[in-house]
């Protein structure tokens, strides 16, 4: 917390010398009259986030540095290279708005996995159910389909007080948790799923961070390590760093379609000796940013490895609906574990994550996801429940979106035809885009892209000439960041540099 000699009024601005901005920063009631015109100024050194209280005459009144009060783990969090691109994108959009002539009229942003931002239309059934739950009077007439009204009525009956504005139970609305459990059983061919092991949460990443909080003891010596794939989406790596864990990288084999190989897991585990205590193994299937889908055999091999090394399995399976190749299927880690039988099926500890953000719905902003826990000790589950209770409950609208995702309209329902038409359009469009990516990117000189089997991204490799890497070095940037910045400036296309996701030394990628 900030240690202040005086509190500050709401409208006193913070002037940041090195960023050139003015904004309200601190609020309070009491301020001595002599200091009412005092300005706050940020240190001119961008490496220090300390604040100085400076009088109008420039006299230093008191030091209020907060740097030593910030967790060292938070300070160790690496700023993403993409932040440079994001700032420049904002500037370019403003330039275009002001009429600055460029070779393009708008910025095309394909750097984030936000379907609606990219132009995918929301599913009618989803939005109609949400609208009816938010404003029940919409159900008074016959403007909404019967199954929409019935679903909304059922969901409202499950809400405390019949309103989406009420809190729910910590783990989620019980009726929705039950239907999530039923969905998992259908997906996994009848493998039992128990509602008491499921927590609905504000997105899968929130749930993953909470489970990591249980696993990672920041005071442990040696520190806790988590085996993490390379490439890997950046938010997980940042979360691990913030919690004080050691990221133990294992490299997916790019030339084999980003294959996850047990030999590489063993190499990573060996590299951790004397550095940390590896406690968990994090896997992403289907992959992000690399669009691979693990085979059943690969999943089974990883489970055996985790069992042998006594590692907690963290299975990020949020893209499970996004599989594009005819002979490729998604097999959940839970299903594979159950099918392997005893003793593994009741011994390997597993957390599986899914979300409404990355399905065909693409409802990123509603923040609805879940985690299912398998084979955890009841004593540990008590602590998990306590931790999840600190945030009261997931947004109720996100829970409703999750319910609709798990239980879409069925044949014979009035909304079924339109729902199938809309979802099939999304599937077809994405499949065509995947095919186009494979064909176009691999036809370009200096590019190589593995076939995209699933997920939402391609992760092509760049082969940059020495002159380009030298220019990047002179600009103080990673080569792939420099490439992305040039592409943004000259073509108005925003990509993410591979360096934010991890890559083998000497290789460069874009997402």
From TrEMBL:
<keyword id="KW-0808">Transferase</keyword>
<feature type="domain" description="Aminotransferase class I/classII large">
    <location>
        <begin position="142"/>
        <end position="502"/>
    </location>
</feature>
<dbReference type="InterPro" id="IPR045088">
    <property type="entry name" value="ALAT1/2-like"/>
</dbReference>
<comment type="subunit">
    <text>Homodimer.</text>
</comment>
<comment type="pathway">
    <text>Amino-acid degradation; L-alanine degradation via transaminase pathway; pyruvate from L-alanine: step 1/1.</text>
</comment>
<protein>
    <recommendedName>
        <fullName>alanine transaminase</fullName>
        <ecNumber>2.6.1.2</ecNumber>
    </recommendedName>
</protein>
<dbReference type="GO" id="GO:0030170">
    <property type="term" value="F:pyridoxal phosphate binding"/>
</dbReference>
<dbReference type="GO" id="GO:0004021">
    <property type="term" value="F:L-alanine:2-oxoglutarate aminotransferase activity"/>
</dbReference>
<keyword id="KW-0032">Aminotransferase</keyword>
<dbReference type="InterPro" id="IPR015422">
    <property type="entry name" value="PyrdxlP-dep_Trfase_small"/>
</dbReference>
<dbReference type="InterPro" id="IPR004839">
    <property type="entry name" value="Aminotransferase_I/II_large"/>
</dbReference>
<dbReference type="Pfam" id="PF00155">
    <property type="entry name" value="Aminotran_1_2"/>
</dbReference>
<dbReference type="InterPro" id="IPR015424">
    <property type="entry name" value="PyrdxlP-dep_Trfase"/>
</dbReference>
<dbReference type="InterPro" id="IPR015421">
    <property type="entry name" value="PyrdxlP-dep_Trfase_major"/>
</dbReference>
<keyword id="KW-0663">Pyridoxal phosphate</keyword>
<comment type="similarity">
    <text>Belongs to the class-I pyridoxal-phosphate-dependent aminotransferase family. Alanine aminotransferase subfamily.</text>
</comment>
